Amino acid sequence: MTWIKTIAPSEGDANLREARESERALYPPEYAIPTGLTDEAGSIVASHSLIPEALHHAFATFGALMSPELPLTRRQHEMITTLVSVTNRCHY
Question: What's the N-to-C CA distance of the chain in angstroms?
């Protein structure tokens, strides 16, 4: 496994906090429910913590694509992502 330096939210500056909060605000409400995964340092979002501007743009894209105003339902999004993962032989 590759080790990537990350900055914990509690140690980040205002730019990092703002980037995380603004991209997270775009996510569907279901993502506000904790999943039991608490290893913040091991998350894909944390891997972008050294460049807050990139973090915001990379993950705000996902939030915008999951907008409830778009024609696909959440169920359809999940079916598409599952099929893509299976096709790409991803375990997630």
Answer: 17
Q: What residue segments make up the domains of the chain, in order of their start? A: 9-87
Token pair of 16, please? Answer: 């990092």
For residue 80, how many C-alpha atoms fall within 13 Å in the half-sphere facing its CB? Answer: 8
The residue type found at 77 is H
| Gap between the Cα atoms of 50 and 36, Å rounded | 25
User: Which ranges constitute the DSSP H helices of the chain?
Assistant: 14-24, 52-65, 74-87
92 residues of the chain, pLDDT tens digit each: 567 888 888 899 999 999 988 888 888 777 766 565 555 656 788 888 999 999 888 888 888 888 888 899 888 988 998 999 999 998 76
Distance CA 29, CA 9 (A): 21
